[in-house]
Input
Amino acid sequence: MNKCFLIISSSFLFFLMSCSNSNQNNNTMNEKNSIESKDFKFLTEQFSDIKIMRYQVPDFEKLSLNQKEYIYYLSEAALWGRDITFDQNFKYNLFVRRILEEIYAKYNGDRNSENFKNFVVYLKRVWFSNGIHHHYSTEKIPAGFDKEYLAELINNSADAKFPIQKDETKENFIAKISDIICNPETYKKRVFQDPSKDLILNSSNNFYEGVNQNDVEKYYSSIKQSDTLRPLSLGINSKLMKENGKVVEHFWKKDGMYGKAIEKIIYYLDLAKNVAENDKQKEYIAKLISYYTNGDLKTWDEYNILWAEETESLVDFVNGFIEVYGDPLGRKATWESVVNFKNLEATKRTKIISDNAQWFEDNSPVDEQFKKKSVKGISAKVITVVTLGGDCYPSTPIGINLPNADWIRKEHGSKSVTMENITYTYDQASMGNGSLEEFAYSAEEIELAKKYGPLAGNIHTDLHECLGHASGQLLEGVSTEALKNYHSTLEEARADLFALYYMMDNKMIELGLFTTLDFAKSEYNSYIKNGLLVQLTRVNIGKNIEESHMRNRQLISKWCYEKGAKDNVIEKKVKNDKTYFVINDYNKLRNLFGELLKEIQRIKSTGDYESGKNIVETFGVLVDLDLHKEVKARYEKLNLAPYGGFINPKLTLVKEGNVVKDVKIEYPDDYSKQMLEYSEKYSVLPDIN
Ligand code: ZN
Output
């Protein structure tokens, strides 16, 4: 309210920028403050295969001062981990990024040349991917300029401070950096997935050094778990190296690797603890601090239990070494953070879902022995994101379900979130971009998508995170690592199938989540269309599908397409030389989803590696070259970017003396500026760790 009355004061300009454009009709002042804007610029720029957006934080102003301050410190802790993620992705990422940033700041040659423009795009892509490998395909990003031009950039950046070693000539330094950036034959892939070769030696991530796949597997299988029912997540927070012929683990902790950054994270977590909303939060933040201090996985589990069981507070966060997609063996976790608060209105929806979790589990099509007899506290909520950090920035998931340890989920429950201000931004930024019209077969399908698409998509995410990942159980003695490099794909498929299967259930209407099953139809259309067509825009011609979520989507779509062929469940149609996939029978498709869910749950529950490998390799990986070329050509005409990422809002403490009076939120729209600010402000790690 206050802000809007400031229209007559000196804050007029600020008001214009943040409020007045925000509504078209006669909304109330409060709605103005929540800036639910039609004119807010969601899409700020596009380069290479990437679009940059900014998201709003509705209702931030309605939080209490204490909650805002709490969010501020958590956000600082989120931003301090950025360099850890860079370094984990590749040993020379920080080294490279800092050199590129120096050139960007100091180069005094022609800054309008084609070459320099390519250099800037390359730098933006490195920022986006937290390193020199594509964030999604994990392949080395082509520089777009040659080593001669790189030398020219370095030689004409007069005051630049380059990390040239004492015993190193400038020529050698240039040779070293150009071998990393410009040579397509070195460090080709961050996460190497072809099981016929050594997964560790061929991956360029910084999780292992001097060890091969056999060393790693031998090392971890030699460690006895003292409690086999509650196994520790061995290896999740360390780099494994061979030193003097011995395999050793370097732990990521306060007095270990990444210690300087972790110290900062601890510092801000500690400040956050003082203003936390309740004692439980204080307790788990203290636990997280001790884990960052001692690196002990038992402490990590204790933290996760406390965190999973605390569901009362409005503000919440993720902060740690969490997801293992960056390691082909699925063991080492990349650092990430998300700071958020609950969207109370939309959470009513997910509460209905989690309150009925046992019903969904009992009625699922999987074998009885693989069902959870009692589903433990799945807490689902819709959240509003305030800050993204580490592996979640600038590219972010739209839903999260944590903790990852199966036994904790089974015994203590898990928290599942749908990030609605992020999905809202995606919807807003892609409105009217032509993609839907290009790939949908009929006007009816387009109509359905416009009418039901956004909510159906959000409910898919709710079901995927809240029920899908949390459902099912492993047979005794089976570990999640049994599926090795296929684990992530199969796990995503399991969660997607659970969601897809239930979306077409009358229970959805009974529970008031849908008013009509047309919501499900619209989601089915979009899923199949994406899995068989649209997502191919993200893959380079001649390549197969590598990324787990993409493999999962194609696996499901293709499996159903082929299994349903005799009944013509999904039909391939060609109109004006364009290929479409049309669903003829939604109920039969639903049954196919159920059948596949049953099989994938069996694979997971029994740790059936061979079947898992077979189903992923047969349906999830290979791409039809002709169709691929067609999809790429159609998409190119639309001039769209297949990947999106976000500029964070900027938070500032407003102080009077030492007393915090408010936390100001702004929405910067300059991606490069934010990246440079972060590199300047949140950077304490050495070039090479
Ligand atoms: Zn998932």
